[in-house]
Structure formats: C-alpha cells, structure tokens
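debug: dumping io for the single-chain case to check the tokenizer round-trip. Nothing else runs in this session.
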Amino acid sequence: MATSLPSMARAGTRRRPVRKNRPDRVNRKRSTPRFTGDAFIEEVYGTLSIFLLFFLLLVAARFLPEALASLPLFPLREIVVEGGDRFDEARILTLSDLCLGNSLLSVDPIRIEDQLSRNPWIRKAKVDRIWPNRIAVRLEERRAVAAIDSGKELALLDERGTIFLHLPDRTAFPTLPRIVGAVAGLEREAHFMSKIAGLVLRLHDSPTLDGHRYALHLDRDRSLTILDPVEEREIHLGRGAYERKIEKFENLWPKIEAEEPDFEFIDLSFGPRVVVRRKGAG
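debug: decoded output
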C-alpha cells in the first residue's frame, strides 16, 4: 500500500506543544519596577530630610524657650496670691524662683508649684500665667488646730489630722490646745488622728467648753481625757464616739453646774451613765 511522503512525515514527527505566555507571569514581570540610580538618590534624600526635620524640632524644643525667656518679652509685674493667709507676694518670691521683671515665658508653673508645696504650711499650690504680665498663685494652706507635746518637741496637727511640722520650741503656739500623754507613734495612726482633729474642732465650737483652754491626755490604750489646767478638772471620754460624748456633756452641763459645780472628775465613757466626783472626795 502506497503512502505519500507528507503522510509519512506527519506520522513520524511529533508536534511540540506551543507554550503560551501566562497572563499572570507577564503582568508580574511588567509590574516589577527597575531600581535606578535617580530613585535611590530620591529615597536617601527623603529619609535624610525627615531625620533633619526631626532633629531641628528637638533643638527648637530644647533651646527656643530659653532663648525667648531671655528676651524682654512679657515682663512679670505682679503676683496675685489667693487663699493664703500666711503668704503674700514677698513670701512667694522667697519660696520660689519667681522674680519680678523676668519674662513670663521663663515661668514654669509646675516647677513653681513643687517649690511652694515644699513648705509644710502649704497643702497644695496652683500656679497660672495671666498674660501679659501677671502670675496667679492659688494656695490651700494648712490650719494648725492642736500641738502635740512629747516632752522633747512640739508637733503641729492640721484640721485633717495630719502631723505636718515639728518644732524644738515647746512654748511655740501657746494658744493651741495641747495633746499630751502617750503620743509616740501617732504619725502612723492617720485614722485615729483624723478623729482627734475632729474632736478638737468640736471643742472649738462648743458653747460650754473652751477648746483653746483645754488639753487632751492620751493613754496607751488610746482612751482620751480632757484636762482643764485652770479649774483642775478632768472629763474622761474613753475611746471613740467623741462628738456624741461632748454633746451629752453639753446637755448635762446645766444640771452639773447647778448640783455639782465644784467637781474634779467626770466620766462619760459608760454609755448613758455619767460618773461625777467632787473635789476632795478621794
């Protein structure tokens, strides 16, 4: 059987498949940018510009306030003190870095507040700049309500029960009521001292008892006795409920004054019961 040459060629030769370019490969090759020298220079220039700008901002933040403060801009003319009985403009200048005539730009309110708060009489200070040339200082001062006498020194107690100042002179502040007796370690008894401060304030407001004349004697078990060194009398309160016991004494005072005016000791620590002892009764 005769076979034509073209047929033989087709039968003995295997056709190779034609490879077609895949679209994803073509796109991937085309999307890859070429990193040229100009692009590298631009990249470096941009990075250096950012670092240079950041450095200049740091330098400006560090030295610009000092430079402006040295200029005669907004000179400080007045210091207004609010809420302070012990402190005026002269005392504020002594306790802080404030100086009249200096630029208001040189004033750091937080630093001035810290300096003023170091004074034991100042509980809190708030400093504000009032443009163009004033400073407002708002103070929260401590109020000394009693003096703790340990026999060696004097410690002042404020209205919140905080011991805030120690003095070597035991004769200082003679008008403050004294707290005597077992007074060691009272700094560590904040809750108890807040009650003592409340009692002292209550005695100040009492129409019957003169809080400035009395002293408070503290026992080791923390029971309390009011001492009257002038009349040589004692009012024993015991432990706790001080204000209620003072109120009970005030209610009983007209009867006590009428029946037992010459008493030397009253015990209010037995609840509703009151024990009264005359002078010389033993």
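debug: round-trip ok. The chain has seven helices and twelve strands.
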